[in-house]
Amino acid sequence: METALTIAGSDSSGGAGIQADLKTFSALKVYGMSVITAVTAQNTTGVRSIATIPTNIIQDQMEAVLEDIPVGAVKIGMLSSSHVIKTVVSTLVNVKATNIVLDPVMVSKSGHHLLEYEAVQTLKEDLIPIATIVTPNLPEAEAILGRKILCEEDMKEACQQLNELGPKYVLLKGGHLEGDPVDVLYDGTEFHHFYQERILTKNTHGTGCTLSSAIAAHLAKGNSVVDSVHLAKEYITGAIQHSISIGQGHGPTHHFHQLW
Ligand SMILES: Nc1ncnc2c1ncn2[C@@H]1O[C@H](COP(=O)(O)OP(=O)(O)O)[C@@H](O)[C@H]1O
Ligand SMILES: Cc1ncc(COP(=O)(O)O)c(N)n1
């Protein structure tokens, strides 16, 4: 059985974070496991409060899983602080984890900060270099690089600058630009562009979480990074197309893959 581990925050409304990741793993028939880094009280309209889990408990959760069960891929989402990032990095390096998909979560769709501002430097120096693939959206890439990204040409340059930080692949997501979204994948030499007609919906809560965990699930099944991104794009597109209109704000993506 293929396995994947998510290291991320809990979203009480089930649309993003750990809950989106586990639903994605299940829909793609991969056995899912989780390390919870923070508990958020949130719904489709916003985040009310956040409790970060103590780092010794985060480390214990990681070691409990990694010392016992072979992990095919690791997806990393919300990490809250510099201390949490350092704990996660040292534990992953100790066990020589591979297939690391890093979604550098910073701000929720509803505008709430999920990562301390000062932690961006630690993310850049310690975590991005060990990632197999890092999947920032445009505001996250702008925060990491300290520059504006306004068009597809800027996206290609940003991919090159992010690649210099050390990850094997960069997938820069273009959902936040106007018009049809384009995502750009860069492996240090070649670019792949993923064009997709914009689906007209406000239900985009958890799209980044869903995409990164779908990439992890496909890596766990033994696919190459490029194939995993292709397959994950198919999955997220279906999940947005069939997204669920619940709640007053941004509704969640749909994970009952076999029902689409
Ligand atoms: N309205 C949409 N229609 C089709 N694809 C979308 C839409 N919004 C986002 N996507 C895709 O969903 C993924 C995550 O999107 P994005 O909004 O850029 O990141 P995040 O959720 O991290 O903010 C990307 O592959 C993006 O192209
Ligand atoms: C626990 C947690 N992790 C990640 C996100 C980002 O998802 P989104 O950008 O769709 O708000 C979130 N809202 N909550």
TrEMBL record:
Keywords of this entry: Kinase, Thiamine biosynthesis, Transferase
NCBIfam families associated with the record: HMP-P_kinase
**Documented EC number(s):** 2.7.1.49, 2.7.4.7
Q: Which reaction does it catalyse?
A: 4-amino-5-hydroxymethyl-2-methylpyrimidine + ATP = 4-amino-2-methyl-5-(phosphooxymethyl)pyrimidine + ADP + H(+); 4-amino-2-methyl-5-(phosphooxymethyl)pyrimidine + ATP = 4-amino-2-methyl-5-(diphosphooxymethyl)pyrimidine + ADP
Pathway listed for it? Cofactor biosynthesis; thiamine diphosphate biosynthesis; 4-amino-2-methyl-5-diphosphomethylpyrimidine from 5-amino-1-(5-phospho-D-ribosyl)imidazole: step 2/3; Cofactor biosynthesis; thiamine diphosphate biosynthesis; 4-amino-2-methyl-5-diphosphomethylpyrimidine from 5-amino-1-(5-phospho-D-ribosyl)imidazole: step 3/3
A Pfam family cross-referenced in the UniProt record is: Phos_pyr_kin
Concerning Gene3D superfamilies, the annotation shows: 3.40.1190.20
Top-level EC class, please? transferase
Report the residue ranges that make up the Pyridoxamine kinase/Phosphomethylpyrimidine kinase domain in this protein: 11-254
| Gene expressing this chain | thiD
Organism of origin is Cytobacillus spartinae
Return the protein name.
Hydroxymethylpyrimidine/phosphomethylpyrimidine kinase
**For this protein, what is any one GO molecular function term?**
hydroxymethylpyrimidine kinase activity
Keyword Kinase attributed: yes
- Spell out the family assignment given in the record's similarity comment: Belongs to the ThiD family.
